[in-house]
Write a structure and sequence with these properties.
By secondary structure, the chain is α+β, with helices and mostly antiparallel strands. The protein has two domains: about 1-185 and about 315-345, Triger factor/SurA peptide-binding fold, CATH 1.10.4030; about 200-305, Chitinase A, domain 3, CATH 3.10.50. Helices cover about 50% and strands about 15% of the residues. It contains 13 helices and eleven strands. Helix 6 crosses helix 8 (about 155-175).
């Protein structure tokens, strides 16, 4: 289990630039911390009184950040941490809550500043973004269910889109143009972090999988092995491995011709890994049995372990340093705004 740290949340202003949404899209984990400040509903006072919680978690220049929005964001962060295998010690919970509300305040401050500077988000942009989000779900009912789970309405989601794009535009205008990452900075990062640029031994492989349940009888196993053996004979005779994978493999990689990309040791189950790393490029394995079933493996390329050169990784280093600087400068920008703002916090 991963060790929990409150630091990523304390520097979460980078999410202002990245701006993901606070509910999972179909088929993928897309948790986020971007929850727009919401107006208190008519029944909030009674609910808050019953639960001994304040109606609002904070106000920023008179604009309320509801306790409901704060609680939703806090719960999202907790859920995402658990999904990533991070154990949160009890003593960290208070600090997490503090970081969550401070991040929400910072976003609201920057959003308000964007409005002062006259930044507008076109209705057509909001419509396109909303459509793109809906299209991530197989059908409208799943989208509606996701909204309900987040205690959100479509109108609130539109408000989030507007707030997100307004913040992004302000950052693009006020912060990004001032950031310059030099070659010297990139080299310094490269020299100071040699372990980051160690590439392990890797293979690029395809496979064909015929699934067999663990409790399958011997007849089923024999028939499955025979089917895969027949496929191998055709491949050995000149058949296209990728085409046989598309037509027969029961792995999600089948549409890509069974292509698994590059992987290092420790990424695959032992029996599969052992054979893959022993194969030479363009060599096809005999039948390999794992808990998933029976496989044929073809290695396309074998890369030895090496240290990546500065020239190979410099674009990624520059991109990473730029993101870090945007994060740092956005935090400072929000902190400066807070110095002259009227901010009241009602949660601890």
């Amino acid at each position: 289990m991963k060790r929990f740290s409150v630091r990523p949340l304390a520097t979460a202003m980078v999410l202002i630039a990245l701006c993901v949404f606070p509910f999972p899209a179909a088929g993928a984990e897309k948790a986020a911390k971007e929850t727009a400040p919401a107006k208190a509903s008519a029944d909030q006072p009674e609910k808050a009184k019953a639960e001994k919680n304040p109606v609002n978690a904070a106000t920023v220049n008179g604009k309320a950040i509801s306790y409901e929005a704060y609680e939703a964001e806090l719960n999202l962060f907790m859920r995402r941490s658990q999904a990533q295998g991070m154990a949160m010690p009890a003593e960290a919970r208070g600090q997490v809550g503090t970081n969550v509300i401070n991040d929400m305040i910072s976003r609201e401050l920057i959003y308000q500043e964007s409005q002062k500077k006259g930044i507008k988000v076109p209705d057509e942009f909001v419509k396109e973004e909303l459509t793109a989000i809906k299209n991530q779900f197989p059908d409208p009912t799943q989208f509606d269910a996701a909204l309900a789970e987040m205690k959100m309405t479509e109108d609130k989601l539109k408000e989030q889109i507007v707030q997100r794009q307004s913040i992004r535009t302000l950052i693009d205008q006020e912060i990004v143009p001032k950031i310059k990452i030099s070659d010297a900075q990139a080299k310094e990062f490269y020299d100071q972090n040699p372990k980051l640029f160690q590439r392990p031994e890797e293979v690029h492989a395809q496979h064909i999988l015929l699934k067999v349940e663990k409790n399958a009888d011997e007849k089923t196993r024999t028939e499955t092995r025979k089917k895969l053996a027949d496929i191998k004979k055709k491949i050995d005779a000149g058949g296209d491995f990728a085409e046989f994978a598309k037509a027969n493999s029961q792995c999600p990689s089948a549409p890509q011709g069974g292509d698994l990309g590059f992987f290092s040791k420790g990424k695959m189950v032992p029996a599969f890994e052992k054979v893959a790393f022993e194969l030479k490029p363009n060599q096809v394995s005999d039948i390999v049995e794992t808990d998933f079933g029976y496989h044929l493996i073809k290695v396309l390329e074998h890369r030895d372990a090496k240290t990546m050169t500065l020239e190979e990784v410099q674009p990624k280093i520059v991109s990473n340093l730029r993101r870090r600087q945007i994060q740092t400068d956005a935090e400072k920008y929000a902190a400066d705004l807070r110095k002259t703002a009227k901010v009241e916090v009602f949660v601890k």
